[in-house]
Amino acid sequence: MTRPRLNPLAIVLRWFAVLGWAGFIWWLMTLPEEEIPDVSSILVGDKLGHAAVFCVLGLLICWAADKSFRALSKTGVGVMSLLMATFYAIMSEVYQTSVGRDGDVLDALADIIGAIAAYYLYFSPKLKTLLSRLRNAE
Fold this sequence. Notes:
Layout: H1 8-30, H2 45-68, H3 74-98, H4 105-122, H5 125-137
Helix pairs in contact: 1-2, 1-3, 2-3, 2-4, 3-4
């Protein structure tokens, strides 16, 4: 069963949100290490931060892809989101090595875990119920 398609402007705006967040991640990557806020006091702060930032990216990709491509199933949306976020995670770590920062496989793994979490959050029935309640409360 195919879902109704949004108007083209809404689709474009969703993908601009993805690009905007990806730009924010890129900006964070270009900061010198001493300017990055120290989050090491949180459990495993650095890896948690990576996962959280890429979870948001994954959610935005799911949100855009789910409404843009009517023929994609939930699994298709998840695979697309995971592939895009994984590619971006790997490229970000490679880029960091070219600007004098450390590229870290564990950072990329934390990024990918965040993207996987995004898929489960996006299609979570409990989250959809909560969002529906919030919309109805307005």
